[in-house]
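Worked problem 6 (solution included).
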Amino acid sequence: MKIIIECIRSQSIPVEIFLWNNNVEDVNRYDVDMQINSEKNLMCLPRWFMGMYASSEYIFSLDDDLVFRDTKVVEDCVDFIGYNDMAIGKTGVILNEEKNYWNSKHILNPDPNNDISVDIIKGRFFMCPKKNISKILLNDLTNVNILNPRIEDDIILSSKFDNKQIPSFLYKRFEELPENGASLYRSVDHRESRIQTTNKYFNRNK
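Solution. The predicted structure is:
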């Protein structure tokens, strides 16, 4: 966490950092603007609600095994999005005709020569205007069972944006850190949940 936080703090424009810490054994107070320690793993949803407290026009999520390689990544992302209702990220999915999540084309890295339009921005790094998120939270992400908070937030959020891009300027701008613990993608529940959520949000009218 310290490596990631230092990386974000070093960005060329100020970034507020909000941390949801569900590791009860981790009693550290990190150099962040807001830290919530919780005994419950509410998975990915809390980060978006916390993001509503940001003073900026944009918010982004960043996984705990990913860091920026240079200090201008966030600034370049802000310039790229501008005032458009656009979501951008490092990885994404171009859905096939059947809207089958796992059998579709998964973009794991940006193309150095071209921006890539996708249907889904994956949550490893997901950035968009804050104003869009507030509407989505109210309409689609509030009816969650706190005892079973399995929700594919990145798929739901992606379904609300007409313009979703993997920008070419993000090529080689991230570094992968070692994973700590089991990854979600190895979970059967995770795989099935992403199939069901894609079917629900991409096979209906917005």
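Discussion: The domain at 2-202 is CATH 3.90.550.10 (Spore Coat Polysaccharide Biosynthesis Protein SpsA; Chain A).
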